[in-house]
Structure formats: C-alpha cells, structure tokens
C-alpha cells in the first residue's frame, strides 16, 4: 500500500473513532481536549465536557457508521496537524434507511499522539 | 446576524469560490499558492499550476453549485486559519439529476487576506 504517514494516522484514527462511537460513545472523551471544537449539525460546542455531553445526548442510542471515503492532507506541515474528510452512511436505532453523512476533523499532534482539535459533522440529504 | 469574524470570512470565501468555479474556473488560481493541496475525488495534486490544471480538466464544462450547509471553525487560534465544511448539490452539464457533494477547506491567512491551503472534495452518493 502506497500510504503516507499522515494517511496511516488518519485511517487508524477514523477506524478507532467510529468503532468507539458505535460501541462506547463516552470513551470518545479521550480524543478531545479543552480547546477542541465540535459542530454537530446546527449546534457548536467547545471543550471535552461539552462535546461528550453533546455526543451522549444525541437523539439516537444505537448507531452504526459505515465509511465510504476517507481522505487526508497535512494541515500544517511544520506542526504536523492532519485534515481528514470522511463520507459514509449512518444507520440509526434500527431505522431501515441509512443516512449519508460527512465529517471533517483536524487532528493536532500531542506528544507521540494526536487529538481532535476541529470536528464538523453534517448529514447529507439526497440531492433534489 | 450573530456571526463571528471567521464565519463571515468563510461565507464570503465560499460565495466567491463557487461563483468563480461556475463562471470562470481558471480565475480560481488566485485562491491557491504553491504549498496548496487539492484532493478531488481519488486524485491528489499540489501547487497552483497543478490544481488549476486539474480543475480546468474535469470531465464537465458547465456546472452550478448550490450550497446546502456551511460550517466553519477557527483552525489554529493563534495563527488565524479557518476550517470550512460545505455540503450541497452540483448540477453538471445540464444533467437532470444533481449530485450531492461535500468539500472541506482550510483557509490560511496571508497579509490581510486568505488563501486555500487544504481542499478536499467528494461526491456523496445516496445511502443504499
């Protein structure tokens, strides 16, 4: 596989993120910090506590993410941040019809690891 | 309108970007620099010349973007970069059915203005 270092980090991150989201949402708290931002549909919150509160109180409990595309780019070459764009499907609470979604992350380096500095999530409704 | 400074910049940028894309695609060159990156579907290119070449040689000539959602966050508080996520519809070459798309930009400050450092574009196919 011809995969750059940042592409591998992006892939490992999103695999972990969606698995954790679907299986144990509260554990996503380890991925955010107090300067992190989350835009989830029309709602914008900042800081680990508010972000986890938002993610815990979404109007669905059971959810399965299926990723369709994953793209990444170095976001700040010197500093080592990574921009990630995901598209995929979201199957919610046993609803028959999945929803399309898109989610953009900026991962910021912290020691030997990364955390989520920016996170923007949107449902994508079918084109009319 | 309760709009932060970075939100206003994001809105002005995307309005200009999509208008220019639809009316005079080659003029998008002013928005990129030699360290800019573009991922357009499966293809990744870098630098103004390669990016404009890619955008000029897409498999459609006439295109109309209709934005559905626009979200932005400060990407690096100290430095003033802005992360932008757009979703919308793309009407191509008079095709009857529009396509859904998502596009994530990172805008980097340059003097009194901004340029596109990161740009990732994906068509979003309807959930199965």
UniProtKB/TrEMBL annotation, chains A, B:
Chain's role: Facilitates protein transport into the nucleus. Could be part of a multicomponent system of cytosolic factors that assemble at the pore complex during nuclear import. Has a role in nuclear-cytoplasmic transport of proteins and mRNAs.
Localization in the cell: Cytoplasm; Nucleus
Organism, scientific name: Melanomma pulvis-pyrius CBS 109.77
Principal location class: cytoplasm
Every NTF2 domain range: 9-123
Gene Ontology biological process terms from the UniProt entry: mRNA transport; protein import into nucleus
Keyword line: Cytoplasm, Nucleus, Protein transport, Transport
PROSITE patterns for this protein: NTF2_DOMAIN (PS50177)
GO cellular component, one term: nuclear envelope
Coiled coil regions, renumbered to chain: none
Pfam families on file: NTF2
InterPro entries: NTF2, NTF2-like_dom_sf, NTF2_dom, Nuclear_transport_factor_2_euk
Protein name: Nuclear transport factor 2
């Amino acid at each position: 596989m011809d995969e750059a270092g940042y592409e591998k980090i992006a892939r490992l991150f999103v695999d972990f993120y969606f698995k954790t989201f679907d299986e144990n949402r509260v554990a996503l708290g380890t991925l955010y910090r107090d300067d992190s931002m989350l835009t989830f549909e029309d709602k914008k919150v900042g800081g680990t506590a508010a972000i986890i509160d938002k993610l815990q109180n979404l109007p669905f409990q059971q959810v399965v993410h299926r990723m369709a595309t994953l793209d990444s780019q170095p976001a700040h070459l010197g500093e080592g941040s990574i921009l990630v764009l995901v598209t995929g499907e979201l199957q919610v609470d046993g609803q028959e019809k999945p929803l399309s979604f898109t989610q953009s992350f900026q991962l910021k380096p912290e020691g030997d690891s990364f955390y989520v500095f920016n996170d923007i999530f949107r449902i994508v409704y079918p084109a009319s």
